[in-house]
Design goal:
Radius of gyration: 15 Å
Number of helices: 5
CATH class: Alpha Beta
Helix content: 25-40%
Shape: globular
Number of strands: 8
CATH architecture: 3-Layer(aba) Sandwich
Structural class: alpha+beta
Distance between the termini: 20 Å
CATH superfamily: Gcn5-related N-acetyltransferase (GNAT)
Strand order of the largest sheet: 1-2-3-4-5
Number of domains: 1
C-alpha cells in the first residue's frame, strides 16, 4: 500500500522526495548545525547515495521521505519520513525528521511526526513504528515521547550508539 505523495498539516506542507530535491538534500547535508545529531556533514557521494536510496524506497514501497515547507510558504524548512530500517536484522518502519535551525522548538517536528505515525497506523496497518536518535539529542527524544514513542534500548546504528524508541499501536 502506498501513502500520499503530499499532505498538509495545520502549519506544514509536505511533498514527496523527487530527483529535483537533490540540491536541497545537499544543502541540508552540508549544514553542520542540522547534521550535528545526524552523523555529521556528509560528502557529495554520501548525499547522492542517500538521495538515490530514498528515491528507490518510494518506488519500492510507496512511501518514504517528504520535503517540508511551511504550509503557505515556498522555502524548504526540513524533511520528514516513514521508511524501512533494519534493526538488528529485523525489518522495521521508522519515523524521522530534520529541520533547519530557525524552525526548531516550534512544535513542527511533533506535528510532522504525528501525521507520519497516523499514516503508518491507519493506512499501512503497522503494529509499531520505531525511531532512532543519538542519546545526546534530548530535544529529539522529547519530540518522540510527546508523539507517543517509548524508549526501548540503546543500539548500534552505522557504527554509533543510538537510542531506539518504539510505539505499539492499540486496537
Amino acid at each position: 500500500m502506498s501513502l500520499p505523495e503530499s499532505f498538509v498539516t495545520p502549519r506544514l506542507r509536505a511533498v514527496r522526495l523527487t530527483h529535483e530535491h537533490l540540491g536541497e538534500i545537499r544543502r541540508m547535508h552540508l549544514d553542520p548545525v542540522v547534521m550535528a545529531s545526524l552523523g555529521g556533514v556528509r560528502t557529495e557521494a554520501q548525499t547522492v547515495a542517500y538521495h538515490e536510496r530514498n528515491l528507490r524506497h518510494w518506488d519500492q514501497y510507496g512511501f518514504g521521505v517528504w520535503i517540508l515547507h511551511e504550509r503557505d510558504g515556498s522555502e524548504i524548512i526540513g524533511r520528514t519520513l516513514l521508511r524501512h530500517l533494519a534493526v538488528d536484522g529485523v525489518d522495521e518502519v521508522e519515523v524521522g525528521y530534520a529541520f533547519y535551525a530557525p524552525y526548531w522548538a516550534r512544535g513542527l517536528a511533533t506535528e510532522a511526526t504525528g501525521v507520519c505515525l497516523a499514516m503508518g497506523r491507519e493506512r499501512l496497518g503497522l503494529p509499531s513504528i520505531v525511531a532512532i536518535t543519538r542519546p545526546s539529542n534530548l530535544a529529539s527524544q522529547r519530540v518522540l515521547v510527546k508523539s507517543g514513542l517509548i524508549y526501548e534500548r540503546d543500539m548500534a546504528h552505522e557504527g554509533t550508539v543510538h537510542a531506539l524508541f518504539r510505539t505499539a499501536f492499540t486496537a
